[in-house]
Write a structure and sequence with these properties.
The complex is a heterodimer of chains A (101) and B (366). By secondary structure, chain A is an all-alpha fold. Helix content of chain A is 33%, strand content 0%. Chain B has one domain. In chain B, 26% of the residues lie in helices and 10% in strands. The chains are: A mainly alpha (101), B alpha+beta (366).
């Protein structure tokens, strides 16, 4: 009888210990809870060179890799507004030649 | 053609970025450097890298090599004319004039395939996309405009454009194939009308003069008349071009005494096996004995060694023309022929090879 009591005490203590080690689970519901998206770690293949035309709203999520080359030529020469702003106004030259060329 | 705005001349399109040539780093061809600030980026910039044939030759080896021989690149035709009318001791002064006034006609790869020519202000054709076939009115007739372009497109009042354009909307390269534009055969290296006709009308019209041809005049006149004698109409001639450097701007300028429409049949000054015709249309070119007087006195002492009325191939071909509608319109009609009375007295000697002394008489019974 005494041995039996010892076993019961031991089992009770073990179950308390096991319960303490497990994380509390939410109560199960009838609808599946949405699984939070896992954030993929940044990879080199999605790195984009920052555009010179980027606005304040476009918050870069990734830092530019030091290996990505900036292409100022293309950035400027594909941007009409920039070309208008920086282009030199060509002075109208008086036509000094006369007759069919 | 309206001139492009400054920004429009250098705006690069998204299509270029995804094209084969767009894969190359800009500075690999244009020099300069990657910098945010414009002046720093443009330091050492080469606007037209194709001015150095090596730029294109790294990939387009054969065509780059042959293009250097073409008259578009070599401009040998100018020197053939200048050398004939001048003497070696005058060449340094003529070279100065040539560099100021003629050398700008030199054509690079980019002048046709990427940009408009400088003579019309330059500017990218299609956002830097390389055009395999250059657009006709923005490249070909931008340079060849005052005569060929105006004739072909029908810009002269009451004179129709060329039938190949009016009826078939053929562009320049429909006849002037790339191989002809990118190379000049050795026998034509000094003059565009030397050597075989390229293109030749019979390339597309082989039935002309052949057995079964339903037009008897073709067989009768074949090898005596160039096709244009019967099938061209009035075209532009020019007089007295004089070149100088402007006192005001320092820019090279020219003044021509006049341009006018003519249709004259002259003797063929370039008669050969390939061009056997006795008669061809002739056009007055704007040279005068004093054309280069600004650079020195009497720089063309051999002015009379080359005609001022020259072999012409007017680009306003018609099936029916005033002269081919009846035999008597040519035969016995001295008005159509370049006779001595139509030539300026001071140019009579120069034009002896082309002046028609006795126009064909009227055909009996007509």
């Amino acid at each position: 009888m005494r041995r039996m009591q010892s076993w019961l005490v031991l089992l009770a203590a073990l179950s308390v210990l096991l319960t303490a080690c497990t994380a509390p689970q939410p109560a199960p519901s009838e609808t599946a809870a949405p699984v939070p998206a896992t954030v993929a770690p940044p990879t080199a293949t999605v790195v984009q060179a920052p555009s010179a035309t980027a606005t304040a709203e476009s918050t870069p999520t990734l830092e530019a890799s030091p290996t990505v080359a900036l292409n100022y030529c293309v950035d400027c020469h594909t941007d009409k507004e920039k070309l208008v702003a920086t282009g030199k106004v060509e002075e109208a030259k008086p036509k000094e030649s006369e007759g069919a060329g | 053609m309206a001139p492009l705005e400054p920004w429009e001349k250098v705006l690069v399109s998204q299509d270029f970025e995804t094209s084969v040539h767009g894969k190359t780093d800009c500075i690999d061809c244009h020099g300069g450097k990657q910098a945010a600030e414009k002046d720093a980026a443009h330091a050492g910039l080469v606007a037209d890298p194709s001015a150095d044939s090596k730029a294109c030759a790294s990939c387009h080896k054969d065509i780059s090599a042959s293009a250097a021989t073409s008259l578009h690149s070599s401009l040998n035709g100018y020197w053939t004319a200048l050398n004939t009318r001048s003497v070696p001791e005058n060449h340094p002064k003529l070279e100065e004039a040539f560099n100021n006034h003629c050398a700008s006609c030199h054509t690079t790869c980019g002048d046709c395939h990427i940009s408009q020519p400088n003579s019309v202000g330059g500017g990218l054709l299609s956002g830097h996309v390389f055009e395999k076939t250059p657009p006709m009115t923005r490249t070909c007739t931008a340079c060849h405009g005052s005569r060929v372009g105006a004739e072909y497109l029908g810009k002269h009042e009451e004179i129709p454009g060329d039938v190949h354009f009016r009826e078939a909307r053929m562009n320049c390269v429909a006849c002037h194939k790339g191989v002809d534009l990118h190379a000049t055969p050795a026998d034509a290296n000094a003059h565009r009308y030397a050597g075989a006709e390229a293109p030749a009308c019979v390339n597309c019209h082989p039935q002309v003069g052949a057995s079964g041809d339903t037009v008897p005049q073709h067989a009768l006149h074949k090898d005596k008349l160039s096709c244009q004698v019967c099938h061209a109409v009035e075209y532009t001639s020019c007089d007295g071009c004089h070149v100088s450097v402007s006192d005001k701007s320092g820019a090279p300028i020219y003044k021509t005494e006049g341009d006018y429409l003519t249709f004259y049949i002259g003797l063929n000054p370039l008669q050969s096996e390939a061009r056997p015709y006795k008669y061809v249309p002739v056009r007055h070119v704007p040279v005068a004995s004093t054309s280069f007087e600004f650079y020195g006195a009497n720089l063309l002492p051999n002015f009379n060694k080359a005609p001022t009325w020259v072999y012409a191939t007017p680009h306003n071909i018609q099936r029916s023309t005033p002269q081919n509608s009846a035999c008597t319109n040519c035969h016995g009609n001295a008005k159509l022929f370049l006779t001595a009375d139509k030539v300026k007295a001071e140019e009579l000697e120069a034009n002896q090879p082309v002046i028609v002394p006795n126009p064909p008489p009227a055909v009996p019974g007509n």
